[in-house]
Amino acid sequence: MNKTRLEAFSDGVIAIIITIMVLELKVPHGTELADLAGLLPVFFSYVLSFVYVGIYWNNHHHMLHSVRSVTGGLLWANLHLLFWLSLIPFATAWMGENHFAARPVALYGFVLLMSATAYRLLASTFVRHEGEGSTLATALGKDLKGRVSMLLYAAGIAATFVHPAISLALYVAVAITWVIPDRRVERLIGDA
User: Fold this and answer.
1) Closest by Cα among 87, 115, 99 to 41
2) Residue 139: pLDDT band by 50, 70, 90 thresholds?
3) Would you kindly state where each structural domain of the chain is located, as residue ranges?
4) Rounded Cα distance, 22 and 32, in Å
5) Which of 35, 45, 91, 176 could lock 96 by a disulfide, CB 3.0 to 4.6 Å apart?
């Protein structure tokens, strides 16, 4: 099965996710810069989530660029990833509206952890489909960065009950490590 529909559908869902998130940014009722201060937690939540959605979109694009075809199982694995990504706007809004209280920050971390789990599942499903010698399998290798990210999300969830700022620092740290696209895939695709 051709991968074009999977790419187009995924891109559309991700665009809608970003649109939903930006609609949560409500215009303040004043005209002074000070009137924006109350929106800072919501805005920070939006920026962090925008970066995360961008990271997933970018890496998803690279993953799909490295494979030849898709199967029904891959379509379901991709839907599983999109399901968790589609919860990011809700978790983002709850976290921002409640000024980074423990439970909303924990839920946000849980959604990030499940998104990462779904992405790993999708990647492993593609590797099984394409074969252990495929471009994607070679590029991913043992995926140490992905595994460490999942551990940091879990640590962030636990840390919310100590202090949510620790969790946010962990979530930001993971995002920073992923902002630069995975060059392993780009290099291998360029060589192919």
Assistant:
1) 99
2) confident
3) 4-191
4) 21
5) 45
